[in-house]
Amino acid sequence: MRLHPLLVILALPLLAGCGGASATQPAPKTAEPAGGAHAHGGHHGHHGHHGHGGPLVHRFEKAEDWAKEFDDPARDAWQKPDEVVAALRLSPGMTVADLGAGTGYFEPHLARGVGPSGKVLALDVEADMVRYLRERAAKEKLDNVEARQVGLADPGLGQGTVDRVLIVDVWHHIDGRKDYAAKVRDGLKPGGLLVIVDFTMEATKGPPKEHRITPEAMIAELASAGLEAEVVPETLPDQYIVVAKKP
Ligand SMILES: C[S@@+](CC[C@H](N)C(=O)[O-])C[C@H]1O[C@@H](n2cnc3c(N)ncnc32)[C@H](O)[C@@H]1O
């Protein structure tokens, strides 16, 4: 079946909102991702995106469709998953939560990092992502990966139960980030780390600019939740990494 050209045009900014556009396919700087009704469906109880600095409310409903983008082998070149995972400082036996795990791009890396005695909690708000994560873990024999559906405003972590939390390309989608940060802090063990990766203001891929968050703003949000956060050195071309510690 041939795709209608209009559909193709509409789909591009939608992908761009999630970092899918490449340098050769610049992200259109529109305020509203195309496919608006689809992307901003009433399911979340929000009315599309908020104003400047507000979260990008977005649905990620059909996992197989997103897998083409999130697990595109070309992603490794700019996402640099080894570098991201190195920032987590994982050890065998740890419990790490991947918050907004999507289709599980990071799961093989995290599963290796914590080893068979450790645990990876692959958490997502979308039921179909969680279904996909379960099937993927079974298929790839990632026995230490457990997929769970979580609520939009609650990471669903037991009090003081996780050593590490990873949040990649998700922070800009979260509403009420200060409250959310406090819930992540509660889920961490003392001394535990939260690593957040998101797009720089200058990046040629990522969400529309009005939804991007500066590292300084992110650090302030995390500090308000009692987390000691800092930007760490990295070589990712389009993103920055913030590491936050629970004292
Ligand atoms: C752009 S994708 C990133 C997926 C994955 N982290 C990666 O790097 O491939 C964003 C994911 O976060 C999920 N998400 C958005 N808001 C969330 C929330 N409040 N809690 C948990 N997951 C959320 C979406 O359903 C989607 O799967």
Automatic annotation (TrEMBL):
Region: Disordered, residue numbers: 21-56
Signal peptide annotation: 1-23
Gene Ontology terms: biological process: methylation
Pfam family for this entry, one: Methyltransf_31
Keyword RNA-binding: no
Gene3D superfamilies associated with the record: Vaccinia Virus protein VP39 (3.40.50.150)
Location of the Methyltransferase domain: 91-202
UniProt keyword annotations, A-Z: Methyltransferase, Signal, Transferase
InterPro entries: Methyltranfer_dom, SAM-dependent_MTases_sf
UniProt-recorded Gene Ontology molecular function terms: methyltransferase activity
PANTHER family per UniProt: TRANS-ACONITATE 2-METHYLTRANSFERASE-RELATED (PTHR43861)
Protein's name in the database: Methyltransferase domain-containing protein
Species in which this protein is naturally found: Polyangium spumosum
